[in-house]
Structures are given as C-alpha cells and as structure tokens.
Write a structure and sequence with these properties.
This protein is α+β, with helices and mostly antiparallel strands. It has one domain: Sandwich (Jelly Rolls). 46% of the residues lie in helices and 24% in strands. Helix 2 packs across helix 3 and helix 4 packs across helix 5. The chain is globular.
C-alpha cells in the first residue's frame, strides 16, 4: 500500500472513529468487509461502494424478485433469511441464505432474466448494488469497479468448475449404470 493511500485510509478511519461506534455507515463498511465481492477493497473503496448501495426491508413472504424478471441488482443480506426457489410443476427450494450471503450476482453482468425466485422467510434487510450504479462507478472509480468485477469473475469461474465436476460425476454414474 502506498504511503499516500495509507495516509488517506488513516484519515478516513480517524473521521469514522469520531462517529459513535454504532454509526450505520461504519456498520455498513464493516459488513461489506465480510463479503467476498468486497474483501479486497480498501476502506476508502468500501466507503465509495457503500454510498451507491440501497438498503431495503422485506416482510415475511415478500418477493425480492421472481424468475423471469430482468436482473438489475446484486443483493446482500444484512439481517434475515431468504429462500431461493424455482417453480416447475412444484416449488423446489434451492437454498436458504442468511446474514452475510449474497444472491443475484449475475445481474451485475447483464439483464438476463432471473433464473429463480427470491423470497424473504422472515423480516429481512438487504443492501442492493445495481448494475447501472456499478457501471457508473467504472467511470468515477475504475480501479474499485475492476476489483469488484474481478471478484465476480473469480466466483463465477469457481461455480462453473463445481458445476462441471457435478455434470462429470453424473455422466460417469450414468455410464457405469448402463454397463
């Protein structure tokens, strides 16, 4: 870390330190540090990202988004629980996500329709990062946006490798059963 960047971060944290320990902005920055998309960002970068995120509360059973809707934002769970579900002939729960988890990250790349439903299982608070805001960040703070996109690419690559392994295991099992 350069001396200039270190001094800037120190000044930022001294300013933040003057606020009460329970400052919502400070809490948000601390929370963002725990999220894989943002864990490599400096404190100053986290503050910049925090400033473009929107907080939203959801009631029990309230829909966050539905399958087929255009994707527009990544969501981070501050508090509560979210169910990720698909509906074919019946409803299938794919995951239950809690504090610190994120979902909808593909929406940061394009407006491809959502592949599942997201619904609050209990009163839930989220932060949303909209694709348009991340694109705007690219113009103002390119390094920060690039680090977020790099983390996103790495995460998607990991998921693709895992999916490929599952498909390969399924193919191997099917082949063995046919022999």
């Amino acid at each position: 870390m350069s001396a200039r960047k270190f001094a800037a971060d120190k000044l930022l944290w001294e300013t933040l330190g003057r606020w009460k320990r329970s400052s919502p902005e400070l809490d948000r920055i601390q929370f963002l540090k725990t999220v894989p998309f943002f864990d490599r960002l400096s404190n100053r970068q986290l503050k910049t990202v925090s400033d473009i995120m929107f907080e939203r509360n959801y009631d029990i059973d309230e829909s966050i988004f539905e399958e087929g809707q255009p994707g527009a934002a990544l969501f981070l769970i501050l508090d509560g629980k979210i169910a990720i579900e698909i509906f074919r002939e019946t409803s299938t729960r794919l995951a239950v996500l809690e504090r610190g988890a994120f979902f909808g990250e593909m929406a940061l790349l394009d407006d491809t329709p959502r592949s599942a439903n997201a619904r609050a299982l209990e009163p839930t608070r989220t932060l949303a990062l909209y694709r348009n805001d991340l694109n705007g960040l690219m113009d103002r703070h390119a390094r920060t946006a690039c680090q977020i996109y790099r983390s996103l690419a790495s995460m998607i690559g990991d998921r693709l490798r895992s999916t490929n392994e599952l498909v390969q295991m399924k193919i191997s099992a099917d082949t063995a059963r046919l022999e």
